[in-house]
Amino acid sequence: MMNKHLIDPMDFSVEELDEIFELAHQIINDPKKFSKICDGKILGTLFYEPSTRTKFSFEAAMMRLGGKILGFSEPNSSSASKGETLADTIKMVSIYTDIIAMRHPKEGSAKVASLYSGVPIINAGDGGHQHPTQTLADLLTIECLKKGLRGHTVGICGDLKYGRTVHSLIKAMSRYEGTKFVLVSPKELKVPNYIKQEFIEKNHIEFMEVERLEDVMEKVDILYMTRIQRERFFNEEEYLRLKDSYILDAEKMKYARENMIVMHPLPRVNEIAVEVDDDNRAAYFKQAEYAMYVRMALMCKLLGVV
Ligand code: CP
């Protein structure tokens, strides 16, 4: 299939994404049919940064396809702690595995890894830059729960500066007709200009930037909440000042549309009150479930087993 690696959400065309979503639907409907399709294949999971969902869902995905996994979740247990370069690590791991999912704190590291790898590299998050497989999960969730990917007003709230899932989602949604964005953040955490200019303004997409969530609750079809990214801040005081900027609770949900959905890449800290979990518009745990199926479909495609 397609590109050998997935580094950036724009690496695949809209048509290629449709193929992945179609396969994900097939897997959801008949998982048994795919349960041995990756027999003999090994996924390497190189996680230089913490993860629950991405790492586990990649691993569960490969196991459910009949393949095996090896990897680390703590870089200090790898030879990176002895000073091995990323290039050398990737050269080695690509000898032992058939496909690699890598998360790394440095922006651009997945691209670098792809230059040295003999097997497909999947970017599982590179610093504050991109998180393309989260975007696949986000798009599949929207496609399933909002009956397609076109014509949605997408509210994105929280840390739009450092949130890599936000950057990837804006890029991806900017290709679907009728998309509008409502960007909600403190002024210190606005979407970076390069994303705004290249993917929103250049495509003549209608958008607004506001600081108060309350003012726009009733405008959006999808509300994508995000965590303030403590680990990306250079200044702890600044983080502490901004960390509680937004808390979505049952009171605010009263102003939302009946058919609006609330998404969140997770983990959450306190930006969505637990009481919202019981609202039937809360889609974030379903989103995490779709993430596993879409990663199954992605690996099948990149490995060429379907
Ligand atoms: N959404 C996401 O990337 O979660 P983890 O950091 O737990 O992998």
Describe this structure in words.
The chain is of the alpha/beta class. It has two domains: 136 residues, Aspartate/ornithine carbamoyltransferase (Rossmann fold), CATH 3.40.50.1370; 155 residues, 3-Layer(aba) Sandwich (Rossmann fold), CATH 3.40.50. It is 36% helix and 14% strand. The protein is built from ten helices and nine strands. Strands 7-6-5-8-9 form a five-stranded parallel sheet, with helices on one face. It is globular. The termini are close together. The relative contact order is 0.16. It binds phosphoric acid mono(formamide)ester. Phosphoric acid mono(formamide)ester binds next to helix 2.
What is shown here, in short?
Keywords: Pyrimidine biosynthesis, Transferase. This protein has 306 residues and is of the alpha/beta class.
Please give the domain count: 2
Compute the separation of the termini in Å: 9 Å
User: Strand portion, in percent?
Assistant: 5-15%
Shape: globular
What is the fold-level CATH name, i.e. the topology of the largest domain? Rossmann fold
Protein structure class: alpha/beta
The neighbouring-strand order within the major sheet is 7-6-5-8-9
The major sheet is characterized as:
5 strands, parallel
Rg is 19 Å
What is the CATH architecture term of the largest domain? Answer: 3-Layer(aba) Sandwich
Low-confidence stretches: none
Helix-residue proportion: 25-40%
The sequence of SSEs as H and E is HEHEHEHEHEHEHEEHHEH
Chemical compounds bound to the protein: phosphoric acid mono(formamide)ester
The pLDDT mean sits at 96
Helical segment count: 10
Q: What is the number of E strands? A: 9
CATH class of the largest domain: Alpha Beta
CATH homologous superfamily assignment of the largest domain: Aspartate/ornithine carbamoyltransferase
